Amino acid sequence: MRLNTTGIAARMMLSLDKKAIGEKLINGRQINPTPLQVRYPQGVREVLGIMSEQLAISTADLTRILLEDALHNMFMPADNTTGNIISRIEYIMLSHDINAPLLATLLSPWNIRSTVIQDPARLADYLSADALEHLAECFNLNPDWLNGHENYPIALSGEWPDTADNFRMLINDSSNTEVIFWHSFPFAGNTKREYYGVILRQKKEINGSVIYPALSLSPTILNEKKKMVN
Q1: Do 127 and 117 contact (CB within 8 A), yes or no?
Q2: CA angle 211, 83, 78 (to 5 degrees)
Q3: In angstroms, rounded to a whole number, what is the distance separating the alpha carbons of residues 172 and 156?
Q4: 154-213 pLDDT, tens per residue?
Q5: Cβ atoms 158, 170 nearer than 8 A
Q6: What ranges do the domains of the chain cover?
Q7: Fewer CB within 10 Å: N-end or C-end of the chain?
Q8: CB of 105 within 8 A of CB of 125?
Q9: How big is the CA angle at 165 (ends 159 and 167), to the nearest 5 degrees?
C-alpha cells in the first residue's frame, strides 16, 4: 500500500504527542532561511506551478502554506475547521465591503451582535450550522465551503440557459444591478484555453439591510451551442 496521509495517521497518531506538535505548529512561526528540498511527482510540480502563477507567489511559499494547513488539519482538525470558518467570514466581509454592524443585521435571527463579530473567538461559539447556511445563501456561496468542509467557494453558480430567450430572461431580471460578460485565458502554457462567463451582481434585502452579492454562471469554453445565446 502506498504511504499517504491515511497511512501516516494510522501509523503515528497513537505514538505522537499531539499536544506538543500542536504547540509547535501554533508557536513555531519563524520561517527557517534554509530551504527544505522536496522532490515532487511531475504532475504535482505542474499543478503547483499553475497555482503559484495565478496567485503571484513562489512555489516554495505556496507549498509551505498548503503543508502547514494540512498538518493543522491532521493534528488539530477542530481548531483548523474553526479557523477556516472565521477566515472565510472575514473574506466575505472584505470582498463585499461588509462591516460588523451590517453582518450583525444579516445574522440578527441568531442574536449575533457586532461586538461578537469583532471578536473571532466569541464569534466561533455563536455560529450555528443554520446561521452559516443562511449566510452562505445570502452571498450565493456553497455552505460546505463556509463551514470549512470544502475548499471551493462558488458551488452555487448558475448554469448556462438552454435557449436565447431563457438567457435574456436571466440577465434582465429586476434584481440584477450589473451584468458582466467576460472572457479570458486563465492559464498559460499548455493549459491555455479561452473561457467565457457571466457575472450577475444582484440586489438582496435581508432583515432590512441591502447587500449586493454576485452570482456567476459556470465558466465555460464557448462552443456552437453557447453561441446562440450571444
Answers
A1: no
A2: 130
A3: 20
A4: 545 556 777 778 878 888 888 888 888 887 765 555 555 677 778 888 888 998 889 998
A5: yes
A6: 5-23+40-75, 86-146, 164-227
A7: N
A8: no
A9: 30
